[in-house]
Amino acid sequence: MKIYTKSGDEGDTHLIGKKVKKSNERVEAYGTVDELNSLIGVTLTSIPDGCEDMKEDLQKIQHELFDLGADLANVTTRENYYIQNEFTIYLENRIDYYWEEAPPLEQFILPGGHTAAAYLHQCRTVARRAERRIVDISEEVQTPAEAIVYMNRLSDYFFAAARAVNVRTDLEDIPYRSNRK
Amino acid sequence: MKIYTKSGDEGDTHLIGKKVKKSNERVEAYGTVDELNSLIGVTLTSIPDGCEDMKEDLQKIQHELFDLGADLANVTTRENYYIQNEFTIYLENRIDYYWEEAPPLEQFILPGGHTAAAYLHQCRTVARRAERRIVDISEEVQTPAEAIVYMNRLSDYFFAAARAVNVRTDLEDIPYRSNRK
Amino acid sequence: MKIYTKSGDEGDTHLIGKKVKKSNERVEAYGTVDELNSLIGVTLTSIPDGCEDMKEDLQKIQHELFDLGADLANVTTRENYYIQNEFTIYLENRIDYYWEEAPPLEQFILPGGHTAAAYLHQCRTVARRAERRIVDISEEVQTPAEAIVYMNRLSDYFFAAARAVNVRTDLEDIPYRSNRK
Ligand code: B12
Ligand code: B12
Ligand code: B12
Ligand SMILES: C[C@H]1O[C@@H](n2cnc3c(N)ncnc32)[C@H](O)[C@@H]1O
Ligand SMILES: C[C@H]1O[C@@H](n2cnc3c(N)ncnc32)[C@H](O)[C@@H]1O
Ligand SMILES: C[C@H]1O[C@@H](n2cnc3c(N)ncnc32)[C@H](O)[C@@H]1O
Ligand SMILES: [Mg+2]
Ligand SMILES: [Mg+2]
Ligand SMILES: [Mg+2]
């Protein structure tokens, strides 16, 4: 079977259970989740030695984002969603674990440092964009409540992981200082 | 002539033939095409040896995206668009060509692998975002029908190309497995 | 204090002075500024030797984007914004400075070349996306007029800087040529 089916050539496409315009807000939501997933793929190419734990996390998250995508694409009324509260609990444990490695924080930090840290910050901001797109649809169509909780935690995961990479590679985060006189 | 004309400092700008707000949906559409074009520029820096064919494709596509951008910016009624059906046909041939190199697929794959493959997946998702922005305007203003067809095929091109890079660099794509118990 | 406060788990969040939905347009605007900031972090990892001047610029800009973010998040009526006209003037000086290094231009150029140049083009397009999101809100809520001026100039800064990187690393920008017959 060819990968290009041409069925989308008039601007329509398929959810699981319904034909819609490609400008449909559900398509926007899981399309943004897909964008985040691909950015994690880029990030994975930059994770340094000594961060094998993080590589495993990121791959686990990639699978979970497909689970989430399937839930967001599904318009048939149902309760047995793919996304599970356990995914969130796992993230929380990992946040605590990485957070302990870095010094306490009372200011914003400039996103960057090691290449992997820089990409993790970019993941953080794209995760937040995806979260906004999920919040957009959550008031209008049936979506798993866990989706927003998971995405909220995921951006904090990326923040904690970015800081841990810089600590482990001996790079210091630069605190933001206001230019205000 | 200076590059900064300051003419956009109040939030207005120019299409070809009309003054509009920068929040205009056409500006959103070609601005997103421009974002994709710049990501292809990043991708080009990572294409490995043995993929010279792909480098040529990507540069050809960069030119075509400017052609597309000019069509999307043009509000004067016309039929002689820059974008041509031949661009799409070329993409289809290249999809077939790369697709043959990779094993058949019956599941989603985690975006990633070689750095170039990872970027190509990111291009794929940004191309789909650009497609959504073109669909947004296509119902309201005159746009070439070929624009949506081309963008639809372009995201499949990136998918096929990403897989070919991983095959050629001996990296295996990881199939998605649902976490559902 | 834990970084994850869970207060956003129902899709709400806080501006400075007000509780809003995460889909609020102000959140979209500073969230996109944050996305740009993180991309500058990525770009900084690729700046070649001989461009220390640009590294300093980019870090200065990162601080300024937090200043801008604070202004966009602030709903309390006020006039003493963080963002200052001097930030724009600095950018204009730097544009002139980099612009002189590159040959005059009368066509579009393909975004790319050196990795840093490619990322700077990506910054350019994401800055323009952020500009559009700021224009979106500027008609409805009180925002500093300087915000749009600054963002308008910032995308020209990235364009000039990208060209300077390619000149300094002996890479020629490829001019766009229309495919039109
Ligand atoms: C929603 C959706 C998406 C979403 C979200 C999916 C998610 N879970 O996150 C996103 C945006 C990620 C997506 C992307 C793509 N998709 Co899609 N997608 C769908 C859709 C509508 C539902 C799939 C789903 O989530 N099912 C729920 C899952 C979890 O249950 P499942 O039944 O086990 O689903 C499996 C099969 O659908 C399947 N599969 C079967 N055959 C093939 C063949 C190919 C080539 C692929 C990639 C997958 C695939 O993979 C799923 C899980 O492993 C289907 C059409 C449909 N109504 O079924 C198309 C569909 C599977 N997608 C398709 C395509 C082409 C793609 C892309 C290659 C498009 C592109 N150019 O980017 C990418 C591939 C991404 C990747 N990394 O592999 C085609 C496959 C055509 C074919 N048989 O060759 C389909 C059938 C749509 C169509 N008719 O054109 N997709
Ligand atoms: C639509 C548009 C865009 C779009 C889409 C264009 C597309 N085809 O995809 C996008 C978003 C890509 C874009 C980007 C930019 N643009 Co523009 N764009 C336009 C606009 C409105 C139409 C151009 C067009 O597509 N014409 C159709 C083409 C195909 O036909 P053409 O007549 O042969 O067009 C050529 C000239 O316009 C030209 N050109 C002539 N002089 C100059 C000077 C410079 C510095 C550049 C970059 C191009 C340029 O390049 C075109 C093709 O080679 C013009 C204003 C206008 N109304 O003409 C501005 C305009 C050409 N853009 C301008 C600028 C500054 C830029 C950016 C540098 C902005 C930025 N900071 O990102 C970038 C450069 C991108 C690049 N890679 O080179 C300025 C150039 C000012 C100058 N003379 O120095 C113009 C004149 C607008 C203005 N008054 O400020 N642009
Ligand atoms: C707007 C805002 C943002 C915006 C824009 C900010 C900007 N200036 O560009 C953006 C989107 C960038 C942002 C990002 C983040 N934010 Co924020 N943000 C806010 C908010 C609403 C206002 C902050 C502000 O701009 N104040 C104006 C500044 C300039 O004045 P200030 O009083 O001196 O502000 C300082 C403190 O707020 C502070 N700070 C104090 N304690 C902590 C702790 C942490 C962990 C951090 C990161 C910052 C921080 O940093 C500011 C400047 O240095 C506050 C909540 C509130 N209402 O105060 C949350 C808040 C500071 N953010 C928070 C968090 C968690 C984050 C992120 C880690 C979220 C994420 N996962 O991405 C990132 C970190 C980004 C980074 N690089 O460091 C939390 C901190 C919780 C804590 N005490 O541990 C807060 C308190 C919100 C909350 N209740 O959850 N944020
Ligand atoms: C740290 C701050 O970031 C903002 N915030 C919370 N969620 C998002 C999101 N998805 N996107 C952008 N900004 C967000 C809120 O203002 C919060 O207080
Ligand atoms: C593979 C699946 O991706 C979805 N799809 C089709 N076009 C787009 C797009 N531009 N952006 C995001 N998702 C899209 C449809 O649901 C299709 O079936
Ligand atoms: C160079 C051309 O880019 C367009 N333009 C101006 N500002 C933006 C923006 N924020 N985003 C996308 N396109 C923009 C206008 O059409 C201008 O003429
Ligand atoms: Mg949060
Ligand atoms: Mg398609
Ligand atoms: Mg401008």
UniProtKB/TrEMBL annotation, chains A, B, C:
Protein name: Corrinoid adenosyltransferase
Entry keywords, A to Z: ATP-binding, Cobalamin biosynthesis, Nucleotide-binding, Transferase
A biological process term (GO) from this entry: cobalamin biosynthetic process
Alphabetical list of Gene3D superfamilies matching this protein: Cobalamin adenosyltransferase-like
Family annotation (PANTHER family): CORRINOID ADENOSYLTRANSFERASE, CORRINOID ADENOSYLTRANSFERASE MMAB
GO MF entries: ATP binding; corrinoid adenosyltransferase activity
Organism (species): Salisediminibacterium beveridgei
Reaction catalyzed: 2 cob(II)alamin + reduced [electron-transfer flavoprotein] + 2 ATP = 2 adenosylcob(III)alamin + 2 triphosphate + oxidized [electron-transfer flavoprotein] + 3 H(+); 2 cob(II)yrinate a,c diamide + reduced [electron-transfer flavoprotein] + 2 ATP = 2 adenosylcob(III)yrinate a,c-diamide + 2 triphosphate + oxidized [electron-transfer flavoprotein] + 3 H(+)
Root EC class: transferase
Quaternary state and interactors: Homotrimer.
Known pathway: Cofactor biosynthesis; adenosylcobalamin biosynthesis; adenosylcobalamin from cob(II)yrinate a,c-diamide: step 2/7
Superkingdom of source: Bacteria
NCBIfam families per UniProt: PduO_Nterm
Domain Cobalamin adenosyltransferase-like residues, every copy: 3-164
Pfam families the UniProt entry points to: Cob_adeno_trans
Gene of this entry: btuR
Alphabetical list of SUPFAM superfamilies matching this protein: Cobalamin adenosyltransferase-like (SSF89028)
EC number(s) reported in the record: 2.5.1.17
Family membership noted in the UniProt record: Belongs to the Cob(I)alamin adenosyltransferase family.
